[in-house]
Design goal:
By secondary structure, the protein is an alpha+beta fold. It has helices at 49-57, 99-107, 121-156, 163-184, 186-199, 205-218, 234-238, and strands at 9-20, 23-34, 64-69, 72-73, 111-113, 200-202. The chain folds into three domains: 1-92, P-loop containing nucleotide triphosphate hydrolases (Rossmann fold, 3-Layer(aba) Sandwich), CATH 3.40.50.300; 100-107 and 203-238, no CATH class; 121-195. This is Spermidine/putrescine import ATP-binding protein PotA.
Length: 239
Amino acid sequence: MKNIEKSEIIISLVDVDKEFGDKKVLDQINLDIKRGDFVTLLGPSGSGKTTILRLIGGFEWTTRGEIKFNGIDIKDVPAHKRDTATIFQDYALFPHLSVRGNIEFGLKLKRIKKKAEEIPDVVWKKFEHLKKKWQDKQNRKIKELKILQAHLEKLLENPQLDIKKRKKLQDKLDDSDFRYSNWENYLTSKSESFKKKYLTRRITKQEINKEITDIIDLVGLTGNENRAISELSGEWNNG
């Protein structure tokens, strides 16, 4: 396995712009975050700190620019498919569910890898065949988009363009950039979908029960599994 250097850049923002209507809140933002870094964004209210975090997490789309994870632009990848976790200041629990219900909700969606002996050889062969097919399609689409982008950029260099024409060309270039990001992630996305369907399985009821027991014990709530969240709030405890 390749040794990963601590200095390796894992997240990059490259020339990122973000506009809300006619208001530009981010202008040519560039940022590199290396593995092991602890990064804090400082600035006055309205300077774009939260917007940057939302862009990284996938809760907002860039107007233009790149958001790279391990060198791949993922700005078109939705939040739930990004390898990130966002903790909001006001965390959310399901008030209508018990302690156990809140823990169980996420576990029901969990999938775990199948054992090697559970997967037929024909599945692996199919996977390798499809990966080659997906890779070829990805390469072809990226090549087409590079040609299109080079053409649009050349047209935008014309100083005689009027504002309306320039905006139309810029919009086409921005759109092609998002499509480029989509195709850059095509192989990974298709591979993950295949793995989820054929190489993983749902977690069993017994496994769910064990994880719930371990988590409840870890946070010191043994005996409170069926109590409502409101009964365990700081306000209730201090009452």
